[in-house]
């Protein structure tokens, strides 16, 4: 039997390479399940961290959690009391769940969260905070019965988490819709937004008023707009034109 330890950096880069070929959330979840299982993880959730007016279930990107626990967690608003989420907001460094402090006397719901998770076999866990340059806050929180967390595995897990998050966000982001307006239609609506009449715009662009009117009618049809003003409002709302 060899005494050599596994090269976790190779595992991490293999995982990252596979991510580039995944196109659906289920594919990413399956890849994460297989790869993170090597470190002892059975459950995970990748989610944004909610502001007071938000519900965490609307921010979840991917999850492999016991459904009954997820329902209890969201129904009781446990994210407001979860010691792991509270620490996640205060640090950029990965941490073990056991390192997330809470006082059972002042935060009894925090104790309820940790005991509830343990009921579903989620006793040990590891959380990787993700803080974007634009202030976006998220985390990948994982758990399992017996975790392989060492100075060698933690950097690999951190790298894998960051790339998994970026791939999930890319896959789940709505695809940008092509601008249905032609360049001349956009230009015509832009001048209309600035208060120019069809005659004024025709003079500016060196075409007839009739041509400008035709461009506006075409834009109205494409945007399902009742008139020029409505078309301008819709084009601005959907950022099809800028001023």
UniProtKB/TrEMBL annotation:
Record keywords: Transcription included?
yes
InterPro entries noted in UniProt: Sig_transdc_resp-reg_C-effctor, TF_LuxR_autoind-bd_dom, TF_LuxR_autoind-bd_dom_sf, Tscrpt_reg_LuxR_C, WH-like_DNA-bd_sf
Keywords from the UniProt entry:
DNA-binding, Transcription, Transcription regulation
- According to the entry, every stretch annotated as the HTH luxR-type domain falls at 174-239
Keyword check for Protein transport: no
Leader sequence range is none
Q: This chain belongs to which protein, by name? A: LuxR family transcriptional regulator
